[in-house]
Amino acid sequence: MDAAHFDIFINALIDELTPSPAPEDDVVRTLFHLLDSPRRVVDDGRLLAVLAAAVRLGNVCDYVIAQAVAAAERAGIPTRKRLRSGAQLLTALGVAPAAAYQAARVGRAAYTLPALTRQHRLGALGIEFVDAVGKGVARVGARVELSDGERAQVVRTLMIQTTPSGVSKKAREVAIAQTAAQSSQGEEVVPVADNADLNEMTLYQNDEGRVAATLDLDALTGEELFAALDPLCRPVPLPDGSPDPRSTDKRRADAFGQLVRTYLSGSGRPTSGGVLPHVTLIRPATAAMEAGEEQGVDMLGFTGPISTVTAELVSCDSTMGTVLVDQDGAPLDVGRSERLFPPHIRKALGIRDRGCAFPGCGRPVSWCDAHHINPWGTGGSTCVDNGVLFCRCHHTMIHHSGWQVYLGPDRHPWFIPPYDRTGPEPPHLRSHARRTLTSMPTAA
Ligand SMILES: [Zn+2]
Ligand SMILES: [Zn+2]
Fold first, then answer.
1. DSSP element (H, E) containing 321
2. 390 alpha carbon to ligand 2 midpoint, in Å?
3. Measured between alpha carbons, how far is 18 from 48 in angstroms, rounded to an integer?
4. Nearest ligand by distance to the CA of 387
5. Does a cis peptide bond (omega within 30 degrees of 0) precede residue 441?
6. Is the model's pLDDT at 75 over the cut of 50?
7. How close is the Cα of 369 to the center of ligand 1, in Å?
8. For 267-323, how does the pLDDT look when each residue is reduced to its tens digit (9 = 90+)?
9. d(CA 431, ligand 2 centre) in Å
């Protein structure tokens, strides 16, 4: 289709979409005039009519895309192109992944939802709304068996909502009501709270690189989650004895992190390609950077680029692996052995620090990372006198904030709180495990 044909096609579409103009009021034909010379627009009514037509045109285009993707999937085109789904056909055309999956989902569900699809085809509904209704019907259908008539009724109920979020809220209400109705008729329905088939977890990385999740769990799995998190959520007082400043949600998030790390540090779990899956840090080799190559960025296997500070934290901890790569991303060295604290040194650190060494903390040894006091990357050795045990919370604090740790003459860790370099240095604090009453520098 060349440009002239495309113009005719668009004009025909606009003719279809806008009500027949009165002879003196040629709103339709003014769309292009408006776009070409916006300053001549003085008439609110005309501009609003054009806006409405353009929105409707967008809806119709979304309908065409959804249908075309579904047709491509039925014809097996993605498989022949070695793609997993129609959505991948769209992403290859530059559509953002979320929009691509939405279009494919709407296209697939279209034939089961004729009334909804008719409105979408007329451009009266936006694809977000159509998708919300489709998901709502699927949600109800997952809980109770729906006949064609019942499904049509659910669609009608959802279609009178005004926003996609209103639709999903209504769908939850309908699902609960339908389940209650069926069970009161004596039909065998798994109570919603017990139904593991409804469980869902979404996990995605946002634009800032943070990872967000939502959970929808049956009561038993939820109970297990509570039971696992509860002992890890307890407040930990600050070094001066004042209460833990973390909010409940923050403590829960920290506890969840601990749960995952404890799981990753165990060995009785499924392997991937013959090895236990673990956090992997991919670091550009310094040699490549020194040679004046474009400076590489530290990366994590799943979540991508990370700051240097966090990369230092990862490479400090004994349970995570680092892979050094050259400027083309080819591995140079799997660099584990010398950097990591071997079990006998960890054991000695456990005996000395008896848990997280941070003043006032004392979380158990099994929760702790072994931190290099002098970073391994700048020549610090892997020995008892260069190691300190920290829980993840305090390990992060040591790397990310102004706290400093050193090994005192008593061969125990001592801490310097963050301070303004222009002011006097604050008193140094003993490690959690060091409870003698003597003070530096005469401590035994
Ligand atoms: Zn560290
Ligand atoms: Zn700690």
1. strand 321-325
2. 5
3. 12
4. 1
5. yes
6. yes
7. 8
8. 777 776 666 777 878 877 764 445 444 567 888 878 888 888 888 888 776 556 666
9. 10
